[in-house]
Each structure stands twice: as C-alpha cells, then as structure tokens.
Amino acid sequence: SRYSNITRIGQGAFGSVFKVTDTKDRNRLKAIKLVKFESLTDLNTIMKEASQLSCVNHPNIIKMNDYFITNDKSLIIDMDYYEMGDLAQLKPEYCTEKLIQQILKQSLSALKYVHEEMNIIHRDIKPTNIFIKKLTSDNIEIVLADFGLAK
C-alpha cells in the first residue's frame, strides 16, 4: 500500500481525514481525505473539490498532491500535512495583534484568489479549516483548506 502509519485526524461532511506516511514520496507526512460515494451525483460533488484544488497555485491555499478513485467507491485526496495544526489549536500567547493581522491578510488573499481567479466561494471559513504552515513569535504563515462546501 502507498500509505502507512494511518491515523484519523478529522471528520467532515464529505469524509474523513487521515495523517499518513506516503511510502512513494520519500516517506513524507501527508493528509489524505477519504470520501465514500454511493452515486454519480456524490462522485460529481467530491470530484469538484478535487479538480478545484488541483488547479490552485497560491501560497495560502492547501496544496493537493494527487487524487484518485479506489476500487471500493472512494475518492482519495492527497494533500500536504501541517504538523502545527489549525488555528483552533493556536496557543493564546500567539494571538497577538500582529499575528492576527497576518492571519487575516493571508486568509483574505487566499479568498480573493479563489473568488476572482476561480469563481469559487469557500462557504466554510472557520479556525479548523485554516492550518499553520510556519509560526514564530512575530510571524505566521497559514493555508486555507477544506473546499468541500465550495460553490
């Protein structure tokens, strides 16, 4: 199997998210979203998220590495994994005015990109859908994730 050390780290409206080791990519840690579908309508909905993410090239939007359909009617979306977690896990000492301004600026930049360049409205902005890429006492870099409810 391509993925090992599989641990569930989240559950959403369209599927589960797992932290995995990708044995075909230098044993990198990844996040994979496993989405089951029962009908062609379901498949079209989840393929929309995958195709949208595959076209994105923005520093504040989660990178999708691959996506494919398995034999058991599941879609796998392979994405980068962020060890520092999401904004809901951000410790209070990092909630300074400077860092919050950076979070807002980067989030708005990502939203502007998907809205203007791709005609996508995210519809599910919340701390658990914004991941921390890098963090110091005076700098934060974030990525926006989970386009499952996007239109």
From TrEMBL:
Domain Protein kinase per the UniProt entry, residue ranges: 3-151
EC number: 2.7.11.1
Catalytic activity: L-seryl-[protein] + ATP = O-phospho-L-seryl-[protein] + ADP + H(+); L-threonyl-[protein] + ATP = O-phospho-L-threonyl-[protein] + ADP + H(+)
Family matches, as Gene3D superfamilies: Transferase(Phosphotransferase) domain 1 (1.10.510.10)
InterPro entries: Kinase-like_dom_sf, NEK_Ser/Thr_kinase, Prot_kinase_dom, Ser/Thr_kinase_AS
EC main group: transferase
Protein name, as recorded: non-specific serine/threonine protein kinase
Protein species of origin: Naegleria gruberi (Amoeba)
Species classification: Eukaryota, Discoba, Heterolobosea, Tetramitia, Eutetramitia
